[in-house]
Write a structure and sequence with these properties.
Shape of chain B: globular
Helix content of chain B: 40-55%
Helix content of chain A: over 70%
Strand order of the largest sheet of chain A: 1-2
Oligomer: heterodimer
Distance between the termini of chain B: 93 Å
Strand order of the largest sheet of chain B: 6-5-7-8-9-12-13
Radius of gyration of chain B: 23 Å
Strand content of chain B: 15-25%
Largest interface: A-B, 36 and 38 residues
Chain lengths: 292, 369
C-alpha cells in the first residue's frame, strides 16, 4: 500500500515539475502571473486529441506536432498581447488581468470546438498496470517520470551553460542592465515563452494520456504548479523539482489519512505554511533590499 | 422657446419608451431552464435541452406553445451562479417555473422559489434531501432512496456481500450512496469502503487504491460521466477485479462515446422506461431529430414541459396557479417517463427504477431474481 502511495506521489510530483518549471522560466523574465500558461497546457492535450481522434495520426507524431503548436501559441500570446502592453508601460496587474482574459477566451474556444465532456486520447485496449513491489504503474506514468526528469535536467543545463540560457538569466535578474549589455530583452522573453509553453504542452499531453482531459484541466494543473514553485523557490530549478515532489507526496500520503477529497486543501495548507514561515521556498535565497 | 419644447418632447418620448420597455409581459409563462451548458456537467444541460426541444416540437400546433417562453441560462453547475441567474431573471420578468439539473442546485433555489411562488421542477434531481424542500417543489424522477434500494437489490442478487462505494462529493452523490448503504446493510451486505471524489476530479487513483485495499467483490460507482470515464480506465490499470455497478449516470452518452469498451458489463439502475404511447412518440421524434435512441433523462425534461403546458391549457397563469393545476393533475399524468403521481412532498411515487447492463454501445434490461 505504502509503495503505491509513494509511486502515486512521484507521478503527481513529476507532472507538477513539468508545469512548474515551464511557468517559472516565463515568470522569471516577465515578473507577472501568466495565467494563460494553464490554457497552453490544455491546448497541448486538445491539439493531440485533434490529430489523433479527428485526423487519425498516431500519438508518436501527434504529440511532437502539438508541442510545437503549444510553443507557437505561447509566442503568439507574447507578441500579440503581452509585448504591446509592456511597451505601453502597463503594470504587472494589467498584464495579469490580460493573461486571465486570454485564459478564459482560449478555454471557451476549446469548449466550443470540442465540447465539455471528458475526452480520451488513449489508443488500444487499457492494460493492467505493471507490478513493481506491489504497486501498479502504467507505461504512460513511466513516461511522465522519465520526461519530467529529462526536461528538468535539460532545462537546468540550458539555463546554466548556454549563451541563450545566460541571456535569459540576465534578463531575469536585471532587464535594464541586460539591455545595456546588448541583450535584446524582447527576443529573450520570446524564447522563454516558446520554451515554457512547449513544456506546458508536454505536461498537458502526458496528463491527458494518464487521466484524460477536460477544457478546465489547465487551471488546477497551473495552481498546483505555482504552489510547487513557491514551495521550491522560484529562482532555483532543483528547488522547484524538490517542491513539486514534496507537494505530490504530501497530497497522497496526507489524503490517505484525512480523506481523498482533501488533496487540494492539503496543497494550499502547505502553501500557506511556506508563505508564512519560509516565503523564499526550499532552495530560494532571501532577498535583501538596500537603498543608497 | 423652441429648444425648450424640443427638450420636453424628447424627455416625454424617452420616459414613454422607458416605461414600455420596463413593462413586464404577464401573458407569457416564463420557464427558466438554468442548467450546465458548459463545464464538466454540460452533457446534462444538453440532454435537458434536447428533451425540452422535443416537447416544444410536440406542441407546435398547440396554441399553448405561444404562451410558453423558455429561457435557457448556463448555470455551470455552480450554486452561486444559479442563485444569481434566478435573481436576475426575476428582476426582468415574472418567472413561473425554474428547471435546474442537480439536487444541490434545487436545494439552494427551493427557499427562493417557495418565497416567490415559483414552481421548482428539476427533471433529473432525485436526491432525498429535496423531499422536505417546500410546497413549490415537484419532481419528475423518482427519489434516490428508490434507486439505492434497487441498486442494493441488484448487488445482493448478483451474489456480492462485500461492496465498496465511490461517490461524488455533492448532495446527489452523498444522498444516493447513503441510500444504497442503508438498503445494502439491511439486506445483509457489508460496505467495506466508501470513497468520495470532487466534481471534475479525473485522477482517482488514491480513492481506487483505498478501495482495492478493502478487497470488495462489488464496486458501486455514483459519480458523473466526467469522472466516470477516467475512473473506468484507472480501475482496469489498478487491477480492481470487483463487479462494477453504477447509478443512472451510466445512461449518459458521453460514457459510450469515450469509454464503451471499459464499461462493458457494468450493471446500473435507471428509471424504468415505460411502454406507453407518449414514450413511443418521444422515441420516434428523438431518433429523427438527434439520430440516436431516446434518452430517459431527455424524456424527463420533455415531461416537465408537457406538465406545465397541461396546467397552462387549464388556465394557469403563474407559479401559484400552476401549483393548483398540478394538484388537480395529480390524479395521474401519463408522460414519456411513465405515470407521474406525487406525494404531499412533490416526490414521484408512481415510478420505479429498473436494472440495466451495458452491452455494446447501449444497455439492456437485466432481470434480478
Amino acid at each position: 500500500m505504502i509503495n503505491q502511495l509513494i509511486l502515486n506521489g512521484i507521478i503527481a510530483g513529476s507532472v507538477y515539475i513539468l508545469v512548474a518549471v515551464g511557468f517559472a522560466v516565463i515568470y522569471r523574465t516577465v515578473r507577472f502571473f501568466h495565467f494563460a500558461h494553464g490554457v497552453v497546457f490544455t491546448a497541448g492535450a486538445y491539439f493531440t486529441y485533434l490529430f489523433k481522434a479527428w485526423l487519425s495520426w498516431p500519438v508518436i507524431i501527434a504529440a511532437p506536432v502539438s508541442i510545437g503548436l503549444c510553443a507557437m501559441l505561447g509566442v503568439i500570446i507574447e507578441t500579440s498581447v503581452y509585448r504591446p502592453l509592456r511597451h505601453k508601460g502597463s503594470s504587472s496587474l494589467i498584464l495579469l488581468i490580460a493573461s486571465l482574459g486570454i485564459y478564459i477566451v482560449l478555454q471557451n474556444i476549446i469548449s466550443m470546438a470540442f465540447g465539455d465532456d471528458t475526452k480520451t486520447i488513449r489508443s488500444g485496449i487499457v492494460k493492467e498496470g505493471i507490478n513493481i513491489l506491489g504497486a501498479r504503474i502504467t507505461p504512460v506514468q513511466i513516461t511522465i517520470i522519465i520526461a519530467s526528469l529529462l526536461l528538468l535536467v535539460s532545462c537546468f543545463l540550458f539555463l546554466k551553460y548556454t549563451k541563450k540560457g545566460q541571456a535569459i538569466r540576465a534578463v531575469a535578474i536585471d532587464p535594464e542592465l541586460a539591455r545595456v549589455s546588448g541583450i535584446e530583452s524582447d527576443r529573450v522573453i520570446l524564447s522563454t515563452f516558446a520554451l515554457g509553453s512547449a513544456m506546458a504542452g508536454v505536461a498537458g499531453i502526458l496528463v491527458a494520456l494518464n487521466v484524460d482531459m477536460t477544457p478546465t484541466m489547465g487551471m488546477n494543473a497551473l495552481l498546483m504548479g505555482v504552489v510547487a514553485v513557491i514551495i521550491g523557490g522560484i529562482e532555483s530549478i532543483p528547488g522547484i523539482a524538490l517542491g513539486a515532489l514534496f507537494l505530490g507526496m504530501a497530497q497522497h500520503l496526507g489524503a490517505w489519512n484525512v480523506g481523498s477529497q482533501w488533496q487540494e486543501a492539503i496543497a494550499f495548507a502547505i502553501l500557506l505554511i511556506f508563505l508564512l514561515f519560509r516565503p523564499q521556498g526550499f532552495l530560494g535565497k532571501k532577498v535583501k533590499t538596500a537603498t543608497v | 422657446m423652441q429648444i425648450k419644447q424640443f427638450f420636453i418632447s424628447a424627455l416625454t418620448i424617452i420616459v414613454f419608451l422607458g416605461l414600455v420597455s420596463c413593462h413586464k409581459d404577464n401573458s407569457k409563462i416564463n420557464i427558466l431552464v438554468a442548467a450546465p451548458f458548459t463545464g464538466e456537467a454540460a452533457s446534462y444541460g444538453k440532454v435537458l435541452k434536447e428533451g425540452i426541444e422535443i416537447a416544444l416540437s410536440e406542441l407546435e400546433a398547440d396554441p399553448v406553445k405561444k404562451r410558453l417562453n423558455v429561457i435557457y441560462r448556463d448555470s455551470k453547475l455552480s450554486l452561486k451562479e444559479i442563485v444569481n441567474i434566478l435573481h436576475q431573471e426575476i428582476s426582468i420578468h415574472p418567472i413561473s417555473v425554474v428547471m435546474p439539473v442537480s439536487t444541490s442546485e434545487s436545494l439552494i433555489l427551493a427557499p427562493i422559489c417557495n418565497k416567490n411562488k415559483i414552481i421548482l421542477l428539476p427533471p433529473l434531481a432525485d436526491g432525498d434531501q429535496l423531499t422536505n424542500a417546500g410546497p413549490y417543489v415537484y419532481r419528475i424522477s423518482p427519489t434516490s432512496s428508490f434507486q439505492g434500494k434497487e441498486l442494493a437489490r441488484a448487488v445482493i442478487g448478483g451474489g456480492h456481500a462485500r461492496a465498496a462505494v465511490l461517490s461524488l462529493n455533492d448532495a446527489w452523490g452523498t444522498g444516493l450512496s447513503e441510500a444504497f448503504k442503508d438498503s445494502f446493510q439491511k439486506k445483509g451486505g457489508e460496505v467495506v469502503a466508501m470513497e468520495i471524489c470532487n466534481p471534475g476530479q479525473t485522477d482517482l487513483r488514491l480513492q481506487l487504491e483505498k478501495i482495492r485495499m478493502a478487497n470488495p467483490s462489488a464496486l458501486v460507482i455514483l459519480i458523473h460521466p466526467a469522472e466516470t470515464i477516467p475512473a473506468l480506465k484507472q480501475i482496469r490499470e489498478l487491477v480492481i477485479k470487483a463487479q462494477l455497478y453504477g447509478g443512472d449516470t451510466f445512461s449518459n452518452k458521453a460514457i459510450y462515446n469515450e469509454a464503451a469498451d471499459l464499461a462493458q458489463g457494468v450493471v446500473f439502475a435507471l428509471p424504468s422506461q415505460p411502454d406507453n404511447e407518449a414514450f413511443r412518440k418521444f422515441s420516434t421524434l428523438y431518433k429523427s431529430k438527434y439520430g440516436t435512441s431516446a434518452d430517459i433523462n431527455a424524456a424527463a425534461a420533455r415531461d416537465a414541459i408537457m406538465l406545465i403546458a397541461e396546467a397552462v391549457r387549464k388556465g394557469a397563469k403563474n407559479g401559484e396557479s400552476i401549483k393548483m393545476e398540478f394538484e388537480k393533475l395529480n390524479a395521474g399524468f401519463e408522460g414519456a417517463t411513465g405515470l407521474i403521481k406525487w406525494d404531499k412532498n412533490g416526490d414521484v411515487v408512481s415510478k420505479n427504477y429498473g436494472i440495466f447492463r451495458i452491452e455494446g454501445k447501449g444497455y439492456k434490461p437485466l432481470i434480478i431474481k
